[in-house]
Design goal:
- The structure is a single chain.
- The protein is of the alpha+beta class.
- 39% of the residues lie in helices and 32% in strands.
- It has a single domain (2-150), classed as Jelly Rolls (Sandwich).
- Strands 1, 2, 3, 4, 5 and 6 form a 6-stranded antiparallel sheet that branches.
- The longest helix has 31 residues, at 120-150.
Length: 154
């Protein structure tokens, strides 16, 4: 099971360039989370201390607007969420709820601190990868905002 998790992480851009030894180290420090349909991994506004990698299942990311949740994105096996928690100290910016039964690998800040102490080079690569992922998502959000603002209304 550990090797399958290492291979799953290796297939993701966030973990690109990270050695299998460093990934195994992180997996040993990670916890597993299960969520049934309709269960939340976390709610918008909660303290953020970890990221998740979907091992099985499907989730929806949503934000509250006028008291109602609005879906932003659907994520499936191999996708990650909550990675901003690894870079900043702000509360969760969105909620994540299981749309199908989910198993997810939870990597907390403490696991990353241990990686930093164990292998600072691998830690630095992971931090750069997380920054790149957040940058990609920001670019996509900027594009969506631009299109929504300047596209002709039908």
């Amino acid at each position: 099971m550990r090797q399958a998790r290492v291979e799953l992480l290796q297939s993701m851009p966030v973990f690109g360039g990270i050695s299998s030894q460093a990934l195994a180290f992180l997996i040993d420090l990670a916890s597993m989370r299960h969520a049934g349909v309709g269960e939340y991994f976390f709610h918008e506004g909660e303290d953020a201390t970890s990221m998740f990698v979907i091992e099985r299942g499907r989730v929806v990311v949503s934000k509250l607007w006028e008291g109602k949740p609005h879906p932003i994105k659907h994520l499936v096996q191999g996708d990650c969420f909550g990675e901003m928690a690894l870079l900043d100290l702000y509360p969760r910016s969105a909620s994540v709820i299981a749309e199908a039964p989910c198993d997810a690998i939870e990597l907390g800040r403490e696991a990353l601190l241990n990686l930093c102490q164990h292998d600072i080079e691998q830690f630095a690569i992971l931090q750069m990868n997380v920054g790149r992922e957040i940058s990609r998502r920001l670019r996509a959000a900027d594009h969506q905002l631009f299109v929504a603002r300047f596209s002709p209304r039908h």
